[in-house]
Design a protein that fits this description.
InterPro entries: PAS (IPR000014), PAS-like_dom_sf (IPR035965). It comes from Phaeobacter piscinae. It holds the Pfam family PAS_9. This is PAS domain protein. This protein is an alpha+beta fold. Helices cover 42% and strands 18% of the residues. It has 7 helices and 5 strands; from the N terminus they run αββαααβββααα. A 5-stranded antiparallel β-sheet has the order 2-1-5-4-3, sandwiched between helices. Strand 3 and strand 4 form a beta hairpin. The radius of gyration is 24 Å and the shape is globular.
Length: 223
């Protein structure tokens, strides 16, 4: 998890980790790029209903779909209207993607892209508009700009997929290195133990020493 945490923390993409056990859509981690893009500080959004998913312009049907995907650990993307921390309206493209950190340990990565306001089909929203506004907001660009919006969405998705691909390959390589190191230490133990049985000098790594080894001993789940 330390490797994944470093990748997310230093990424230029606005990223989060979704809490899979919360009743509402809550975040358990956001990186500095998320804070810069939205204006929300980490302490304002972690372990509580996230403001990005809670507002008068947010379609509740989209929120329900995000929750279902979260609960099923399924990939999903939705475009939502909301406000940043300063009250400025923006259109946010949100992705949720599952990442396997270790076998049986899956985290949900959130990517939150602020879309170009000049390609928006909706006028700026205000805090006084009621929830009915959400039903009148289109997620498509105006006539003649659909191709520009499609190109923007394609570019952002490519950025997100490149990060996911890199993260998954790095985690896989980390698991392979840990497994190879584990096998090497087990071989070392049995080779030394066999030498002792044949009358060599006592340099045996006993069972207690094996249990103290961070790789051979029991490890807590750090997810």
């Amino acid at each position: 998890m330390n490797l994944l945490g470093s990748l997310l923390r230093y990424s230029s993409l606005p990223l989060s980790l979704i809490n899979p056990e919360a009743e509402e859509l809550e975040l358990s981690f956001v990186n500095p790029a998320f804070e810069k893009a939205t204006g929300y500080r980490a302490e304002d959004v972690l372990d509580r209903p996230c403001p990005l998913f809670d507002g008068p312009a947010v379609k509740q049907s989209a929120i329900s779909e995000l929750k279902i995907a979260r609960d099923r650990c399924k990939r999903i993307s939705r475009t939502l209207w909301n406000y940043d921390a300063s009250g400025r309206p923006f259109e946010c493209l949100t992705y949720i993607d599952p990442i396997t950190v270790t076998p049986g340990n899956i985290v949900l990565l959130g990517c939150h892209f602020m879309l170009s306001p000049e390609l928006s089909s909706s006028p700026p929203l205000t805090h006084t508009e009621d929830e009915g506004v959400a039903d009148r907001v289109s997620t498509h660009g105006p006539t003649g700009r659909e191709s520009e919006r499609a190109a923007e969405l394609h570019h952002l998705e490519n950025q997100k997929d490149e990060l996911l691909d890199y993260a998954r390959k790095a985690l896989l390589r980390c698991l392979e290195m840990r497994r190879n190191t584990l096998y090497s230490r087990i071989d070392l133990y049995f080779n030394r133990h066999r030498g002792n049985l044949l009358g060599a000098d006592s340099a045996d790594i006993d069972a207690a020493a094996m249990m103290r080894d961070p790789l051979l001993g029991p490890r807590e789940n750090q997810a």
